[in-house]
Design brief:
The structure holds 2 protein chains of 2 kinds. Chain A is an alpha+beta fold. The longest helix of chain A is centred in the middle third of the chain and has 11 residues. By secondary structure, chain B is mainly beta.
């Protein structure tokens, strides 16, 4: 089964991926953080390594994942995302943490 | 008509400054990669339109950009810098051992003969090579696996490999400098490396004869004399005439011998430039005056170059990669500051003008001499 997930990127990563506004990615099977990022990196290879480590897949320290007004950053990357994200009603948000100047 | 292209990396993007050989009227493009730290931008000697840029962010990590049209357009290439094998450990600030961990690319050194060949010096200190235009990177791990590797420790800016010098007379010889480990040389194409720190004295080290731990800030070489190396160390300006086997001090009559940048005149192998910085605790030019110092005697005797540079209320720094020379008949010298100025002298340092005054803090300056 395929789901179309809306993803909101921070400004720097939009510029890097050369996109405006939200992007939509098709996710096969269970809609998890890892699956969404896999699909995102497949569509936009220049984002590999910028959200999570390219090898270990560990989330970069100053990147956060929000959806449905929840901070999902510390959830397992293999945990299912909220149904409304999988249904495309709510976006999955990649956020640059507030840090520095 | 020939000209120059000055490649400027700043804390908030890259800028490209171009001019004809008169170097009076400049076109400024940028910021490229706005908002990102651009540690270094370098052009290929084999194809001047091939440029590489190290784009980094504390949030989003390392991106490598490549241009095939002299900086008009760019595309991201490979950013996977994976240490070869089990990375092992190096010394951390508190004396404990810490695993090698990639942070960023400090310096890019394109191959003199192959536009697709480029070396990268990275933090934590290691040397990488790409032979496919930056798409894929392979660590040359003979360096990091040197038997002194576990004793390397970071300087204030991190454990960074910031200088790569390729010997134009010997394809198997290369020099690298690491803060704060010192200088190493390979004579076999990066398979094995030799420490070349004899003669360096660092008051910060308890052992006066220490061979590891020197905070070497930058090396420079004239291509016609690859046996002669010049060094700006944390403190001390040094020289070697035997490819680094032995060093001796040439600070001479400099007002202070702390600094970061050093370079050599394009046509005069004994003419050297430095920018003295007040001290390791006050990272700005001495006495509030922006002065580039030139020695026409290979060191020891230095003259301040001030014409066109601010001589009061100036408190900027010039970082290690922020000085460059062009190879036009009248050699041009370029200096970028943490205050956002890029100064140019089109006459070997006698007279200076600011090409730009208000960029973000400048991290690096390179110049290409265009046909």
């Amino acid at each position: 089964m395929s789901s179309t997930v809306r993803v909101v990127l921070p400004a720097h990563l939009k510029n890097l991926a050369r996109v405006h506004g939200e992007v939509k990615v098709d996710v096969e099977g269970a809609v998890t953080t890892a699956a969404v990022l896999d699909a995102l990196e497949a569509d936009f290879p220049m984002l590999v390594g910028t959200i999570r480590d390219g090898v270990t897949k560990k989330r970069r320290a100053f990147v956060r994942f929000f959806a449905c007004q929840q901070d999902l950053s510390h959830e397992s990357p293999d945990a299912p995302l909220p149904e409304s994200v999988a249904a495309g009603a709510e976006p999955f948000m990649v956020v640059g943490a507030m840090a520095g100047g | 008509m020939s000209g120059v292209r000055v490649l400027v990396g700043t804390r908030k993007g890259a800028f490209i400054l171009t001019s004809d050989e008169r170097r009076q009227d400049w076109h400024v493009s940028g910021p490229h990669f706005a908002g990102w730290e651009i540690y270094h931008v370098a052009g290929s000697p084999a194809d001047p339109d091939r440029l590489y840029a190290s784009q980094t962010s504390g949030w989003f990590g390392q991106v490598l950009q490549r241009s095939d049209d002299g900086g008009k357009s760019w595309a991201p290439v490979g950013n996977q810098f994976v240490y070869d094998g089990v990375p092992g450990t190096h010394q951390w600030y508190d004396g404990t051992q810490r695993p090698w961990e990639f942070a960023r690319v400090w310096h890019l050194e394109p191959s003199p003969t192959d536009p697709d060949g480029v070396y990268a010096g990275v933090q934590d200190a290691a040397l990488f090579l790409s032979n496919d235009g930056g798409q894929n990177w392979q660590e040359l791990s003979g360096l990091r696996n040197h038997d002194t590797g576990p004793s390397w420790q970071p300087g204030a800016g991190g454990l960074c490999l910031h200088t790569i010098l390729l010997d134009p007379s010997d394809a198997n010889r290369m020099f690298v400098a690491i803060s704060a480990a010192g200088v190493l040389r390979t004579d076999d194409g990066a398979k094995t490396w030799k420490r070349i720190n004899r003669g360096l004295k660092s008051g910060e080290l308890p052992d006066p004869d220490a061979d590891v731990g020197h905070c070497v800030h930058k090396l420079a070489m004239h291509p016609s004399r690859p046996q002669t190396l010049f060094m700006q160390k944390h403190w001390d300006v040094m020289r070697s005439d035997d490819a680094g086997d032995n060093w001796y001090e040439i600070s001479g009559d400099l007002p202070t011998d702390f600094g970061f940048a050093i370079d050599v005149h394009a046509h005069e192998p004994e003419t050297v430039y430095v920018v003295p910085i007040k001290s390791d605790s006050e990272h700005y030019v001495h006495e509030g005056k922006m002065r580039v110092y030139r020695s026409r005697t290979g060191g020891n005797e230095w003259e301040p170059l001030t014409n066109g540079l601010p001589q009061e209320n100036c408190y900027v720094d010039v970082l290690r990669d922020a000085m460059a020379v062009d190879s036009l008949d009248s050699c041009g010298i370029y200096v970028g500051t943490t205050g956002g100025q890029v100064y140019c002298s089109a006459d070997s340092g006698d007279n200076w003008v600011a090409i730009v005054r208000d960029l973000p803090p400048v991290l690096s300056v390179e110049v290409q001499t265009l046909p």
